[in-house]
């Protein structure tokens, strides 16, 4: 499969680049996508939640009333989980939510996500570009020329591009990543996936 390469002005350059069918035209596997997105979201969780248990809160250990003869249920000290302001039983503790996922499943999920972008006409290839200085206005112009302004866009470059990255940092709906930072969640989250010409060649080699 081939796709036309555009320039910063949104015009055709007269060149086209190959999108490998084994990456951009497979039978999408929704379950692999689910597993990969689930792992990504689990791995970014901080897991710093904590509630104090009975031995961690301050309060008198005196028994509030005698065991029998009071006419009510038995009760211990004021730290009891049954009382307002008391401790919590089996409360959350700091933990890690991260878990492992096989490399082949992650690659299958990424290829499936890229295939969906091609099927939905949400993938654009532009020639490699850079800015002389970080300017948000220039980034907005590029998106306007590509007719993707006002949408959630993900720009992918082969190597880190500081000026382009800094130009997009002020735009809430625009992200710039390298191929190594690309994952299934980011691909699906974006309404439009904009790949630089060199990044496509790199993807064709690492996701086969």
Write the layout of secondary structure elements.
Elements: E1 2-6, E2 12-18, H1 21-24, H2 30-43, H3 103-119, E3 123-126, H4 136-145, E4 153-157, H5 162-168, E5 174-178, H6 184-189, E6 192-196, H7 197-206
Parallel strand pairs: 1-3, 3-6, 4-5, 4-6
Antiparallel strand pairs: 1-2
Fold and architecture overview:
The protein has 208 residues and is an alpha/beta fold. It has 2 domains: 2-45 and 99-206, Ribosomal protein L4/L1 (Ribosomal Protein L4, Chain: A), CATH 3.40.1370; 47-96, no CATH class. It is 33% helix and 15% strand. It contains 7 helices and 6 strands; from the N terminus they run ββαααβαβαβαβα. It has helices at residues 21-24, 30-43, 103-119, 136-145, 162-168, 184-189, 197-206; strands at 2-6, 12-18, 123-126, 153-157, 174-178, 192-196. A 6-stranded mixed sheet has the order 2-1-3-6-4-5. The chain is elongated. It starts with a strand and ends with a helix. The model has no long low-confidence stretch (mean pLDDT 93).
Poorly predicted ranges: none
Give the CATH class of the largest domain. Answer: Alpha Beta
Order of helices and strands: EEHHHEHEHEHEH
Principal-axis shape:
elongated
Q: Tell me the radius of gyration.
A: 27 Å
CATH superfamily of the largest domain, please?
Answer: Ribosomal protein L4/L1
Cα end-to-end separation: 15 Å
Q: What is the percentage of strand-forming residues?
A: 5-15%
Please give the domain count: 2
* CATH fold descriptor of the largest domain: Ribosomal Protein L4, Chain: A
Number of strands: 6
Individual helix count: 7
Give me the side-by-side strand order of the main sheet.
2-1-3-6-4-5
Structural class: alpha/beta
Largest sheet: 6 strands, mixed
| CATH architecture type of the largest domain | 3-Layer(aba) Sandwich
Helix content range of the residues, please? 25-40%
